């Protein structure tokens, strides 16, 4: 598989703030950037192991961002599966009272599924089968822990040169309890639109099920096969239009179960 072309050298880049544990790691290059901060590939000088270090800038600047980061850390410290990215270490700040940045050490994966699909137009049926197998296996484990990922997309699935995949970014995930109020499931923006299940697009039901993650995997698998998103909606209405154009109108039985009147009229 082709490597991720977006990687940049770490030369002249100030990665660490005043963290004593930083001396244990030698940063090699930037492998990802986002609104949260930056991810650097590094080597643990004590063990020689290659790792990824996620630097989260100004973690307390926005409460919603801090909540997502805390949620992801709490879940990934509990989830242990070959197809789920693993947290190896969380660096302790020099002062528990005054710190702005957080450094989380993960196992290193060279790329993500988005770049794999974009850079490889010669993926074989065997690639497709192995990718889908890993995704469904990881999802079975996640759902067995009553966790809904809620934001599955190619960019949130890490990949390496051995065609191994690992699901990451659990910032929007939720733990489902049978006795939890249904309203709790609708508090946050859920899932990137192109991979969002129809019941999320239209708020069709008051409480959703693990099927929302299965829908996302289906959209990802279609993208593997065709090389492009299957439902690239420009907005929510266009997203639903693309779904019904391809899959047809929902059955009367399904429509009667919809509680949102605007969605039902659509």
TrEMBL record:
Protein kinase domain span: 25-266
InterPro entries assigned: Kinase-like_dom_sf, MAP_kinase_CS, MAPK, Prot_kinase_dom, Protein_kinase_ATP_BS
Residues given in the record as ATP binding sites: 55
Pfam families: Pkinase
SUPFAM superfamilies: Protein kinase-like (PK-like)
Source organism superkingdom: Eukaryota
Single GO term (MF): ATP binding
Segments traversing the membrane: none
Keywords from the UniProt entry: ATP-binding, Kinase, Nucleotide-binding, Serine/threonine-protein kinase, Transferase
PANTHER family: MITOGEN-ACTIVATED PROTEIN KINASE
Membership in a protein family: Belongs to the protein kinase superfamily. CMGC Ser/Thr protein kinase family. MAP kinase subfamily.
Name of the protein in question: Mitogen-activated protein kinase 16-like
Species: Iris pallida
Taxonomy of the source species: Eukaryota, Viridiplantae, Streptophyta, Embryophyta, Tracheophyta
């Amino acid at each position: 598989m082709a490597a991720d072309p977006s990687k940049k050298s770490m030369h002249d880049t100030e990665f660490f703030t005043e963290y004593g544990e930083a001396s244990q790691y030698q940063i090699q290059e930037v492998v990802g950037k986002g609104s949260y901060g930056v991810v650097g590939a590094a080597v643990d000088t004590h063990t020689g192991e290659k790792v990824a270090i996620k630097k989260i800038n100004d973690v307390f600047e926005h409460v919603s961002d801090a909540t997502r980061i805390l949620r992801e850390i709490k879940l990934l410290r509990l989830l242990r599966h070959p197809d789920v990215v693993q947290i190896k270490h969380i660096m302790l700040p020099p002062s528990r009272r005054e710190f702005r940045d957080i450094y989380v050490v993960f196992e290193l994966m060279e790329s993500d599924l988005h770049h794999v699909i974009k850079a490889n137009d010669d993926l074989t049926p065997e690639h497709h089968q192995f990718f889908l197998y890993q995704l469904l296996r990881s999802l079975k484990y996640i759902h067995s822990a009553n966790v809904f990922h809620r934001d599955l997309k190619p960019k949130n699935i890490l990949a390496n040169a051995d065609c191994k995949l690992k699901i990451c970014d659990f910032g929007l995930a939720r733990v489902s309890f049978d006795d939890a109020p249904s309203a709790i499931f609708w508090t946050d923006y859920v899932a990137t639109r192109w991979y969002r299940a129809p019941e999320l697009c239209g708020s069709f039901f008051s409480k959703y099920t693990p099927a929302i993650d299965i829908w996302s995997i289906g959209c990802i698998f279609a993208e593997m096969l065709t090389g492009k998103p299957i439902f690239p909606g420009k907005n929510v209405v266009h997203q639903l239009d693309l779904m019904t154009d391809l899959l047809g109108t929902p059955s009367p039985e399904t429509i009667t179960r919809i509680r949102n009147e605007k969605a039902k009229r659509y």
